[in-house]
Amino acid sequence: MNQSTDGFYGLGIAPGLLDALSKHGFKIPTPIQRKAIPIAIEGKDIIGIAQTGTGKTIAFGIPMIQRLAKEKGRALVIVPTRELAIQVNAHLEVFARELGMRTSVLIGGEPIIGQVFSLRKNPRIIVATPGRLLDHTSSHHVRLDDVHTLVLDEADRMLDMGFAPQIESILDIIPKERQTMLFSATIPDRILHIASRHMKLPVSTEIAPTGTAAEGVSQEIFVVNKEVKVRLLGEILKKYTGSALVFSRTKRGATQIVRKVRAMGHAAAEIHADRSLSQRKEALEGFKSGKYRVLIATDIAARGIDVSDIELVINYDLPDDADNYVHRIGRTGRAGKAGHAISLATPEQERDVREIEKLIRKNIPRSKHPAVPSAGFSAAAAAQSAGRRALHRRGPDHREGRSGGRGRHFRPS
User: Fold this and answer.
1) Residues 6+ away with beta carbon under 8 Å from 6
2) Superfamily per CATH, domain 3-206
3) What is the DSSP annotation of 155-215?
4) Which residue in 125, 169, 316, 371 could disulfide with 103, CB within 3.0 to 4.6 Å?
C-alpha cells in the first residue's frame, strides 16, 4: 500500500467514516493509527504504546464509533485529567455526530447537575475522569452494564496520579465481555498487571520505544545556580519570540514564575491543579489563541493537551521523574515540525540529568549564556540535595496531584 496516496483507505474503516475523516482534514494516518485501527476494528483488545501527539484519539475513536454503529450499548473512555477529557470528547464528537450519536463528558470542577442532564440524553460515548465517573455511578446517575468498549487513555499517567484503585473499581463494574483498548506513552509493570488481569490476549503495538524523545526536537541544558534561573529565563524569552511552555515542578512555583514573567512584560498564564476548571480552560484557550505567549504549567499539562505550534518548551525545573522529561518536550515539535527544548539544571542535579540522558539514550548539549553566570555540577551539592530529597519524602508532599493520600479519596479530576 502506498501510504502517501491511499491514506486511511484499506484499514477496514467504513465508507461513511472515511468520508468524515476526509471532510475534517484527516488525510494520512499516523503510525499509531495505521497499526492500531485494523486491530481495533476486528474487536481485539489492544495495548498501544506511542508518545503524546501521535494521534491516539483517532486510533481508538474511529474503530470505537464504527462498532457503536453496528451494535447496541456504549463506549467508555477513561482519561487522567479534565483538560484531556474535554479534548478527547471534542475529537470524538466530530465523528459521533456524523452518525447521530451523542457524547457526554464527566469531569470534576463542573456542576454535577449539568452532567446528570447530559446522561439523561442517553449518550453512546462517555468520556470521564475516574473520580467523577465513580461519583456518578455511586449516585446511580449512570449504569455501566451496557459498556462493550473500554478505552484507558494515557494509562501510565493515570497510575502516576494515584488512580489505580479507581480504575480497578471501574473495571469491576463494567461487563467482562468487552473490548479493551489501553493506550500509554510508557509500559511500566503496573500496566502489564492491568493487562494480565483485565484484557483478553491483547495485541501490543509500539510506535516508539519507551523513552524515545520526539523527533525534530533539539535540546540543550544550562547549568546555573538557583538564584539566576529567573534572569536566564528572561534572556531565553528575549531570544525566542514564539509561544513558550514553561514547566515548574510545583504549583506554588508556577504561580511565582507567572508573576515574574508578567513583570518582564510577557503575556502569561498558569495551569495547575490549584486553578479552577474555568481558569484552566481560559489559560489553555488563551495560549492557543495567542492571548498569552507564555504558559507556565506543572506536569498536569505534560501530556494530552492538544496545542499545536509551540515553538519552545522550557524546563524551568527538571521533572521529578525522567519519563516526564520526554512527555514535556513532546509538547513541541509535533506533527513533523521542528521544536526546541531548554532545561535549567542546578549544580546538584547532575544525577537527574544523567537519568534523563540514560532514558533518551543521548547526551544533551550543555550551553552557556553570555549574560548569565554559568555553573558546573557539584558532587557535594548533589549529596546535599539527595539528603534534602530524602527529608522531603518524609514530610508533606506538595507536588502536583498529591493531596496527602492516595486511593479512593483522591479526587484531583
Assistant:
1) none
2) P-loop containing nucleotide triphosphate hydrolases (3.40.50.300)
3) HHHHHHTT-HHHHHHHHHHS-SSSEEEEEESS--HHHHHHHHHH-SSPEEEESS-TTPPPT
4) 125
**Cell numbers linked to 81:** 485529567
Contact 328, 307 (CB under 8 A): no
Lowest mean pLDDT among 10-19, 124-133, 190-199, 255-264: 190-199
* CA distance readout (Å), 204 to 101, 181, 184, 259: 29, 10, 11, 45
Give the largest CA-CA distance in the chain: 65
Kindly give the residue spans of alpha helices, DSSP state H, lying in 212-334: 229-239, 251-263, 277-289, 322-329
217-394 belongs to which homologous superfamily? P-loop containing nucleotide triphosphate hydrolases (3.40.50.300)
Which residues in the chain are classed under CATH 3.40.50.300? 3-206, 217-394
How far apart (Å, rounded) are the C-alpha atoms in residues 124 and 74?
5
* Phi, psi (rounded to 5 degrees) for 46: -145, 140
Distance, in Å, from the CA atom of 331 to the CA atom of 302, rounded to the nearest integer, reads 7
**Which of the given ranges, 56-60, 332-336, 338-342, 391-395, has the highest pLDDT on average?**
56-60
Tell me the residue ranges of DSSP E strands in 236-280: 244-247, 268-271
Distance CA 169, CA 152 (A): 13
Residue position matching grid coordinates 540543550: 220
Per the CB < 8 A criterion, the answer to whether 84 and 58 are in contact is: no
Q: Grid cell 526546541 — which residue?
A: 340
Does pLDDT of 252 surpass 50?
yes
Residue type, 299: D
Question: Which pLDDT score, from 0 to 100, does residue 157 have?
Answer: 85
C-alpha–C-alpha distance, residues 55 and 50, integer Å: 9
Cβ 128 vs Cβ 78: under 8 Å:
yes
Joined grid coordinates for residue 144: 455501566
CB atoms within 10 A of CB 3: 11
pLDDT tens column, 347-390: 999 999 999 999 888 999 999 999 999 998 876 554 555 554 54
Q: How far apart are CA 80 and CA 131, in angstroms?
A: 9
Cell numbers found for residue 411: 479526587
pLDDT tens for 289-320 read 899 999 999 987 665 566 778 899 999 999 98
